[in-house]
Design a protein that fits this description.
The protein has 14 helices and two strands, in the order ααααααβαααβααααα. It has about 325 residues and is an all-alpha fold. It has a single domain, classed as Farnesyl Diphosphate Synthase (Orthogonal Bundle), CATH 1.10.600.10. About 45% of the residues are buried.
Amino acid sequence: MTEREDPVVAASRAVLAEHARTFNLAGAFLPPERLDEAAVIYAFCRLVDDTVDEAPSAEVGVRELAEIEAELRQESAPRPLLAGLLEIAERRRIDLRVFEELIIGVRSDSDEVRIADDEALLRYCYRVAGTVGLMMCGAIGVESQTALPFALDLGLGMQITNICRDVAEDAKRGRIYIPESRLRRVGIAPETILDGTVDRRLLSMVIEDLLKLAERYYESADHGMSFIPARSRVAILVASRVYRAIGRRLLAHGSDPMVGRTIVPRRGKARWLSSALFTFATRRGQERSVPHDPWLHRGLAGFPGADPLAARLCDRFVADPRSTSTP
């Protein structure tokens, strides 16, 4: 499959270039066929997201998502993008439930959003971002099932970073993704985020804790990088480092998400690109000896790609000895 031969790939590459600057940068390190497949997957994810965010009403968005679901299940004729996606899923053995979980997560954005606690946060992040990590595993040539929990962690870390960065933008849509339990723990009433009267000092404390939580997921994801074929690994390292830099930059500026959208300038991206290349050059696969921490997937038991040992944490609460504020 090449860009010239397949108009779906050409259109998907254009979507990737326009909307995903970080991944488009990383994609320069992917073999062409792998980039084509990753672009189609990204275009599908973008379609699902835009179906809700750009719909004239919540009802229309939900109805159009149902149409996409029907095409995924081949209950109706798939549009070209969906047909291409299904072909990739079959060829790369990507579990179709992962695509369905993404739709479930995005559908939850069609109304007011409130997240009760950390486990609800992880389930949301799994659906809208962790699933993307699992999809991309197939596209970039990851074959070991052992790698999937680590890939999932990269998506979780990225989405938590997104949530921390976009508090003000999300509030304009009536959405609060910060767990209510964390807000009330420091004395913040969630509605003050919506009306702009939130105590920014207290909010910054919550954001700082969440960014530290994201770091735990990025660190875990690093242990799974050696499962990725060498050339594709560079691309994922680049995406991970550049995205992780958003959270670190926000931390460095006081963790206040209300001052404006945090971005990584071109010079900063170059530095993190260099870091990714250095990591690739110096690591020799020793990360595979590090087992995945099932605690990171508490509340995700039974979800495709989640750590199977997380099921042992479902029926009882065991305090994490490293922290009282993280899952």
